[in-house]
Every structure is written in structure tokens, then in C-alpha cells.
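EI: anyone free to look at a 346-residue chain?
SC: sure, send it
EI:
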Amino acid sequence: MRIDTRKPRQAEASTFLELPQALSQPGILSARHACTEVRETHLSYLFFTEHEVYKLKKSVRRPFVDLSSVAARLHNAQLEILLNRRLAPQLYLGLSQVTHRSDRVIALDGQGETIDWLVRMHRLPADRMLDCLIDSHAVANDDLACLTTTLDSFYAGAKRISVSPTDYLASWHRRLHEERSLLLRPELALPEQLITVLTHELETMLLTDENLFSVRVHGGHIVDGHGDLRPEHICLTDTCTIFDCLEFSASLRTLDTADELAYLAMELRVLGADDLAAAVVATCHALGGDVVPPLVHSFYTCYRALLRARLCVWHLYDCSTTEEEKWRRKTHAYLSLASEELGKNR
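SC: here you go
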């Protein structure tokens, strides 16, 4: 089937604006099950039926991803399925075409012109997401074992990224410089002295302990990972399903396995699950035979906490007033954790 790869016409843009409403109508996504919920994210709409979820990519262009054409959205959807099947092989069912006839009747995989594409997935049980399990104090030893063995197997088979220690360290210096500039933007109103101290200490770690990071590179620990390993992207049933990787950016998925585990542990600590965070990191490192220096773990933890603090502040510009306090509270939690973590190395 031929896909129009030209820039979107005005008619196409107009059609896209109508799609979320059209797809949520009874009988469109499923003849038997109605759409029960629609959620909107920065890059997509999610349509929930009783047993399945459909994702429609937004027609947007951002600095990190261009989804402004049908062809671009198709390519991104194909990447999402391919990359996420590494850790969620049964979750991603495939693609569905959104079609419409000349009489403008919208259908899934119907006759007529293909106007967009949906990623089709099984619907996971919300109460088995790791963040929900933590909230209800229901994480069992079997859940920990399932998660850590899944991650160990993933990292053992993950694609190794060839990079020199010099280039790896240079990339971190660039990231810290960019992050400091973003965090110190006046409109974010973050504590300037704290940000300056934390980013300076991270820079100092890179300069004085660069050999520790060089060892990580030489040891083959830089991989094509998940990129966004958070509790809300982990579902623990009889198996461990990890989804929603950063399909749009190979550079953001290129990381040290210790960095990705530090990121997950940091998020677990913010949720109050300090013991679980320590157990996940220790078990994964033991399974993989990886000895990670505490300073390296602290460096990655602090950086990830600063990054998340900035993203939380940016949410304040998009959220409703009722959510404002939530994002302020989370921003403070990430900054406090970053400061606490670096305090261990002073």
C-alpha cells in the first residue's frame, strides 16, 4: 500500500484534528467493545477498550522527533513495535490502518485511503503496574525476582554500542552543560545555588574520576537500552512486561546499564521504596557479574534526578491548576534526592 510521503496538506491536517473524536466513537476500534477511556500525552492519544489499547501518534514536530507526516508517524510506530518487543514481546500486537472513504466514513483496516496508523496493544492490568504495587505495598519477592531476571537477560543480549572513553566523557560534559543551562533558566524559578553546586560536583566527578567511567566503556557496559525505565512502565503479572521505551531517539537509549538501573532505583526511592531500589540494583549487578563503584552509581542517580526535576517543572506550564501542587512536590522530591545522593560522596 502506497503511503503519501509528501508534506501534509491542509486537508490532511484537518482530518487529523478530527481523528481522536472519531476513533472514540462506538464501533470504530472494536465491534464488540466500546472505547472506555481516552488519554492524551505530549506525543499521542491512547484509546482504551476492554482488552486492547490503541495509540495514535500526534501530528507534531518537536526538537527530538518529527511526526508531522503520515509517513513519519508510520515509521515511528514501526520502530515503537520493533524496539518494545525486546522487553514486551507479547504486548505489541501490530499496526492498524485508519482508513476513510470518499463519504468520510472512518474505519479500522477498512476500504479507502489510509489517513493514519495506530499501534495496537494488549491492555495491561493497571493494578499490576510497579508504581501501583508500591503504593498498595504489594510488591512480592517473586515480583523482584521476575523484574531482575528480565532486566539481566535484556542487558546480556542488548546491542553493545562502540564508543571511545574520550567520546563518552565528552558527551557527559556536553549533557551537564546543557542541563545546567536549562535548569537555570529564570522562568523555571529553581534554586540557583543548589543547581550550580550539584552540576559543579557532577563535573568534578567526571574530571577527577574519569578512569571509573572509562572502565565502564572498556567493560562493554554501554548498550542500546530502554531509555525510560520507570516504575509506571513495568507490569508484573506472571511475567515481567516493560514497555514504552524511547523509540524516537537512539542517542537517549545509548547508555551505561548502571545508568539505567540507577534511574529506575532513583524513581523507586522517590516513591518511598528505598529497600526495593537497593534490592533491584544489587540483584541486577550480582546477576550480571557487574561491580559498579558507588561514585558512578551516585553520579548517574544525581543526573537522572536533576533531569526529572526539570521535566516536572515544565509540566507546570501545561497542567491544570489542580495538578500544580503535584508537580511542585515532585520537583522538590527530585532535587532533594539529588542533593542527598551527592552528599554521600562529600
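EI: Residues 10-123 form one domain.
SC: 👍
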